[in-house]
Protein 1
Amino acid sequence: PEQKTALKERIKRLLKEQQAVLVAHYYVDADLQDLAEETGGCVSDSLEMARFGRDHPAQTLVVAGVKFMGETSKILSPHKRVLMPDLDATCSLDLGCPADEFAAFCDAHPDRTVVVYANTSAAVKARADWMVTSSIGLDIVAHLHAQGKKILWAPDKHLGGYIQKKTGADMLLWQGSCLVHDEFKGIELELLRRQHPRAKILVHPESPEAVVAQADVVGSTTQLIAAAQTLDADEFIVATDNGILHKMKMAAPGKRFIDAPTAGNSATCKSCAHCPWMAMNGLQNLADVLESGRNQIHVDADISRKAVLCIDRMLDFAA
Ligand code: 13P
Ligand code: SF4
């Protein structure tokens, strides 16, 4: 493989030549995050990634993240070319919610408003009334609850349970979970907090209830980075993918960040605090797809026409 700096220069040149823009998530490799920023792209949470890709004039979007992020970008901009470094980069929530089983679940509960998390396939979104991301799910469900709506929620049981508790909404939950966040442990976190009594606890809501219950701030990746920057504390325990630490350290220099405890450690547990699918994005495969035009995202036109409705509903609500 080429040296890192040479690869980065090649990617910058290819982005320019192809008039492409790089849209990255906070969990991907730090080099990719930096490249996205340096080249006028964006690094952000999944809500902002969707909005940025839709609004940017570039006709080629390169999405460094996981498949549902590429699909959402393509659904919002069907005429743009959407590339991803590795098309096998999926998500355990997406895998755990097959479209046919989900359709049967919806059919069995026709009286409920269907709200799905962004981390799902386009075919699942095509069955939904609303799509939400972690940054706005609470507000949207509170809004639906105020209208007296009963909700069918999928797929993340922890995020769904958290929203249910906060809003008091009637929610029927699909039982999916994220294999990374599911590893964070409540009892071990309590013990760690005793060793760091002044630390503030930042938690992504895909984490189990016992972990969320100890949080000072629960939020999307963007919201957690903002909290690290603004909260008056110099130590934080962070329960989310450790890819986020790159940006957190930049946003809050001088502050100390500690990984929340998981059952295993990085030597024994492949998905502990780092998403194996986000990790499939690298400089080499990014350069290769830009060069070759391979790994284009395609979404069936009929599915896309249906799925766009629930995504637009969220973006209109967020606007
Ligand atoms: P955010 O929308 O908070 O970035 O979360 C996406 C995700 O996949 C978290 O695991
Ligand atoms: Fe999916 Fe979890 Fe990876 Fe996020 S961290 S993409 S929810 S598997």
Protein 2
Amino acid sequence: MAESKVKDMGLAEFGRKELSLAEHEMPGLMAARKEFGPKQPFKGMNINGSLHMTIQTGVLIETLHALGAKVRWCSCNIFSTQDHAAAAHRRKSIGVVVTEQMMTVPGWSVEGTSSSTTSATRSLLIQKGKEFEENTDNAEFKCILQLLRDSILADKTKYTRMAAKCKGVSEETTTGVHRLKEMAAKGELLFPAIIVNDCVTKSKFDNVYGCRHSLPDGIMRATDVMIGRQAWLILVVGYGDVGKGCAFAMRGAGARVLITECDPICALQACMEGFQVVTMESVVGEIDIFTTTTGNFKIITLEHMKKMKNNAIVGNIGHFDNEIEMENLEKFEGIKVENIKPQVDRYVFPDGHGIIVLAAGRLLNLGCATGHPSFVMSCSFTNQVLAQIDLLTAKEKGYKNNVYLLPKDLDEKVASLHLPALGAQLTTLTKEQADYIGVKATGPFKPDTYRY
Ligand code: NAI
């Protein structure tokens, strides 16, 4: 068994209990275990994953394992690792779980990497502890993940050996998909990639409804403020999938919500939903809670933060901590930091006014709360399992070193697997009706261009 780095093995039993509860809420993954488990499609395969090490990710890991894979995992955000989830896996002897809260680094190794299937599902901050330096495969794995992480490109020569054995990658996030597309366009992608984020049952569910749940959860756990009060203004920066979920959550909590957008289509959508679209500069001094959702950088600058109200709450649910200029804030001369509690800091400017920064500018829904609920993550992760199965026959299907969508029928399958748990009853098309609208009665029901 591979060595793991886990903070507290005493939490394993708690982790196991929460994993059991989550299984009940993740019907897609449990159906995948039932359908594919007996066939063991991943037998002899290694799946390397990088994704927030939460309970929900734990159910994904155990599903991949149940389908025959050797699984190695690392976390990707210093605040998002749930140590009880990591401990439960360690006890069950599944792969390597790196938690960045780990204090000691025992010697550890990984299983052989022949015929690897790599699932680098989320960018990460793994460079922190030199976790992957002990072993060449680990170093190469780190390089692949760094490549997916951001434009800070790793030394490409380091990952070619592993890439040659890699059947492909399935990518979870909006930003990761951008990077993969850039790499494919430059001819730098060394294996096929399935862009799971672009499955309808991922981005139109996890990004929207997941954030609709976990944004208020994070803000409330961190600050206990009353979000819904007439005089308060909330700014949601970006009105893409995540922004839409956030805006609806804040409005649902009773707040007045403003939006900033650069894309006229999204701005128009916001207007049609009754949200006022503004610029940051025009409202920065009036806002009570800022939430960035763009996946872009330098969204809230130091200059903005200087102009904010006393005790304005500033958080990011988009991608990296660079959506907020944290580095410049921390370096600002005379700034004082009052740590209120873990992941909640009040930065006090020399003029005496302070702002409350959540999760040090990292994802506040994972840093200050526990991320998305299991049910919505079941949709995302069932896509991951189907994508990894699809990659097994990538060569036979003629996949090149490019990015691919999961076929629409699989996207629809993921939705179908989740409907019974919600008591939904689908209408069956007659052959005549199906012919009339030009689809098969069993689907796919929409072309790839349909936007939902
Ligand atoms: P998206 O592309 O649908 O939305 C981003 C929006 O931000 C776009 O409409 C874009 O026009 C807008 N935008 C970009 N720069 C802007 C600026 N300077 N000012 C105002 N608006 C700007 O992407 P999506 O799916 O909403 O994802 C956004 C980010 O959230 C990504 O980084 C993604 O990886 C991350 N994400 C985080 C999750 C979480 O649990 N915290 C869950 C899902 C996604």
